[in-house]
Structures are given as structure tokens and as C-alpha cells.
């Protein structure tokens, strides 16, 4: 097994180009450049990237909405999947949010995206409702929520 040195750090608007590139690689219907730049520049967000030799290979973008964190994107480069990068990023994002007393996490996931649904379930997210025709291609989404009680 190859052990890759992965560095995890906060993402800022200066990382926008790499974020946009990774998003294009990972999604058929990306949020797009303008939306991502707006999130990073103008919204209160908690976002982490995983870097391998300065290349962004994984990310979590979370936007603070009152007392909760809305996870708007989770993506890992195809060559770096199944190595625990997404779960590590989500757990670290959670810790950063908890330090700000944010204990509720929400996200939408395509009902057909079984790998992502499994990832979120393993981390304690529960599907609470179906949002019909949420995606551009007409697919439905699960709204998944995690609340930390402590
Ligand atoms: C979904 C995604 C973020 C997972 O990233 P990852 O770094 O490979 O995930 P992890 O290695 O942390 O996986 C953790 C667990 O999630 C589940 N999982 C992740 N990918 C899976 C797959 N392809 N098939 C089945 N289960 C999977 C497994 O339970 C896995 O644990 P295991 O490897 O010990 O079995 C990645 O596949 C991706 O970027 N996909 C395209 C974009 C996307 O769909 N994002 C989510 C949109 S809501």
C-alpha cells in the first residue's frame, strides 16, 4: 500500500481555482465558478482541503447558516478515493464547527449516490426527507442531518 503524505488545512478564496477544477472533475452538474467564489469570499464558511504535494485532492465546503453548518460540497479526486480522505475531512470540519458551538450539520445528496450516502450514514447523518427534483438532471435528493448532543 502506498502511503501518501496528505496535508489538511482550511480553504480560502485563494484556493478557488483548484476548488473549481476539482469540482468539475467530480460532479456532472457543478455549482460553478461564480457560486464557489461567492461562497469563499462573502459567506461565513468552514471549509477544509486535503493536499498532496500542493495539489488539492479532497475538500469539504460548509456554509454557516445561523446555528448549523450546511455542507454544500464534499469531493475527493478519483485517484485518491477510499483512503479515508472524505471521512477525515468531515470529522475535522465537525470539530471546527463544534468549537464555534455549531452542533447541527445538514447536506443534500442524490438518492442514487450510494457511496456518499454510506459515507454520511457511517458518520451519523440520517436521511430526514426527500427533496423532489433537487438536481438539474431531475434526480431527487435526501436531506441528511446530523445533530451532536453533548
Ligand atoms: C463520495 C466521496 C466524497 C467519498 O470520498 P472518499 O475519500 O473516497 O471516502 P472515504 O474513503 O472517506 O470513505 C469512507 C466510507 O464511505 C463509504 N464509501 C466511500 N466511497 C464508497 C464507494 N465508492 N462505495 C461504497 N462505499 C463507499 C465506505 O463505507 C467508506 O469506508 P471504507 O472505505 O472503510 O469501506 C467520493 O467518492 C467523491 O468525491 N465522489 C464524487 C463526488 C460526490 O459524490 N460527492 C458527494 C456529493 S453529496
Layout: helices, strands, pairs:
Blueprint: E1 6-10, H1 16-26, H2 33-42, E2 45-52, E3 55-65, E4 68-76, H3 85-98, E5 104-110, H4 114-122, E6 126-131, E7 141-147
Parallel strand pairs: 4-5
Antiparallel strand pairs: 1-2, 2-3, 3-4, 5-7, 6-7
Bound molecules: coenzyme A.
Coenzyme A is lined by residues 26-27, 58, 74-76, 81-87, 109, 113, 115-116, 118-119, 122.
Detailed description of the structure:
This protein has 150 residues and is an alpha+beta fold. It has one domain: Gcn5-related N-acetyltransferase (GNAT) (Aminopeptidase). It is 29% helix and 35% strand. Strands 1-2-3-4-5-7-6 form a seven-stranded mixed sheet, sandwiched between helices. A hairpin with a 2-residue loop joins β3 and β4. The longest helix is centred in the middle third of the chain and has 14 residues. The chain is globular and about 40 Å long. Coenzyme A binds next to β4, α3 and α4.
Amino acid at each position: 500500500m502506498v502511503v501518501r503524505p496528505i496535508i489538511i488545512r482550511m480553504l480560502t478564496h485563494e484556493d478557488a481555482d483548484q476548488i473549481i477544477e476539482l469540482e468539475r472533475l467530480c460532479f456532472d452538474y457543478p455549482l460553478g465558478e461564480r457560486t464557489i467564489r461567492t461562497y469563499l469570499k462573502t459567506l461565513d464558511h468552514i471549509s477544509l482541503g486535503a493536499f498532496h504535494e500542493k495539489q488539492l485532492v479532497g475538500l469539504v465546503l460548509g456554509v454557516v447558516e445561523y446555528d448549523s453548518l450546511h455542507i454544500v460540497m464534499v469531493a475527493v479526486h478519483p485517484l485518491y478515493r477510499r483512503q479515508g480522505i472524505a471521512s477525515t475531512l468531515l470529522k475535522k470540519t465537525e470539530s471546527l464547527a463544534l468549537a464555534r458551538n455549531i452542533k447541527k450539520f445538514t447536506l443534500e445528496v442524490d438518492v442514487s449516490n450510494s457511496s456518499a450516502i454510506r459515507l454520511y450514514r457511517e458518520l451519523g447523518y440520517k436521511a430526514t426527507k426527500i427533496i423532489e427534483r433537487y438536481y438539474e438532471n431531475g434526480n431527487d435528493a435526501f436531506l441528511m442531518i446530523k445533530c451532536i448532543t453533548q
